[in-house]
């Protein structure tokens, strides 16, 4: 496994040592080859797949030899980490532990946070999701905007981030931190106004913060938004929450007691 190097795919692609100094990786094509391999740590990526990812159906003459040359240069750059870039059969793999790659730490933390939340552990979920979201230091794969090989991964990461942000807000609400949730969710519903679950959490936070009328107004606002802009009816969760708010049914409204001390 690679030694003390860490690999960063949020923001510009970087490979850094334990002392914080980053390696010189060379050309854009070379960095793109590394990115393709890092997105599948420990998995063999055939040369033909690397060619398809980089040149999406229109490879230049001698593309396979070019990939081999780029890999040879990357091996030299990564030599301090030992045999981290391994050639097998007709492809290559990065023999790197996922926890040394920032996008893997983020994805693993987001999944673990969600598991803790659904398992009834909001405090653990909040801590885990805070750590996962802290990995997001810049746009994913920022060196390769618009490249077909990055599009699906970027979309997947952005969706995962939106879910993680939502899960963190739910965890904080269950912990009784209604004030924080009102501020955070007010921002989130403005940024992503069509996520109905965010609006449910926002309305619940408003109610838990003692703002019952504002909670009902938020529910009415998202109902109008969904119908007028998307032609959609509000879902059963939002309707159930509205009934609970009108009836002051605390047991049916997400949220916990405020923290003490």
Automatic annotation (TrEMBL):
Gene Ontology molecular function terms on file: DNA binding
Keyword Transcription: yes
Transcription regulation is among the record's keywords: yes
Keywords: DNA-binding, Transcription, Transcription regulation
Family statement drawn from the similarity comment of this UniProt entry: Belongs to the AfsR/DnrI/RedD regulatory family.
CDD domains per UniProt: BTAD
Residues annotated as domain OmpR/PhoB-type: 20-94
InterPro entries in the record: AfsR-DnrI-RedD_regulator, BTAD, OmpR/PhoB-type_DNA-bd, Sig_transdc_resp-reg_C-effctor, TPR-like_helical_dom_sf, WH-like_DNA-bd_sf
UniProt source species: Krasilnikovia cinnamomea
Classification via SUPFAM superfamilies: C-terminal effector domain of the bipartite response regulators, TPR-like
Protein's name according to its UniProt entry: DNA-binding SARP family transcriptional activator
GO BP annotations listed: phosphorelay signal transduction system; regulation of DNA-templated transcription
Domain Bacterial transcriptional activator residue range list: 101-246
């Amino acid at each position: 496994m690679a030694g003390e190097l860490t690999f960063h795919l949020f923001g510009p692609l970087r490979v850094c040592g334990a002392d914080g100094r980053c390696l010189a990786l060379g050309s854009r094509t070379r960095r793109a080859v590394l990115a393709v391999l890092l997105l599948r740590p420990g998995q063999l990526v055939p040369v033909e797949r690397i060619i398809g990812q980089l040149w999406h159906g229109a490879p230049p003459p001698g593309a396979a030899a070019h990939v081999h040359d780029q890999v040879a240069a990357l091996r030299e750059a990564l030599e301090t980490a030992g045999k981290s870039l391994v050639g097998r059969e007709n492809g290559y793999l990065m023999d790197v532990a996922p926890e040394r790659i920032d996008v893997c730490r983020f994805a693993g933390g987001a999944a673990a946070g969600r598991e803790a939340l659904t398992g009834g552990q909001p405090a653990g979920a909040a801590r885990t999701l805070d750590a996962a979201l802290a990995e997001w230091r810049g746009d994913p794969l920022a060196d390769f905007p618009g490249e077909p090989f990055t599009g699906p991964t970027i979309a997947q990461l952005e969706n995962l981030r939106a879910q993680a942000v939502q899960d963190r807000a739910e965890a904080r609400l269950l912990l009784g931190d209604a004030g924080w949730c009102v501020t955070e969710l007010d921002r989130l519903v403005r940024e992503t106004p069509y996520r109905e679950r965010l609006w449910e959490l926002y309305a619940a936070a408003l109610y838990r913060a003692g703002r019952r009328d504002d909670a009902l107004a938020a529910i009415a606002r998202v109902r109008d938004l969904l119908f007028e802009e998307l032609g959609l009816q509000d879902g059963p969760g939002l309707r159930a929450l509205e009934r609970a708010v009108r009836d002051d049914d605390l047991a049916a409204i997400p949220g916990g007691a405020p923290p003490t001390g």
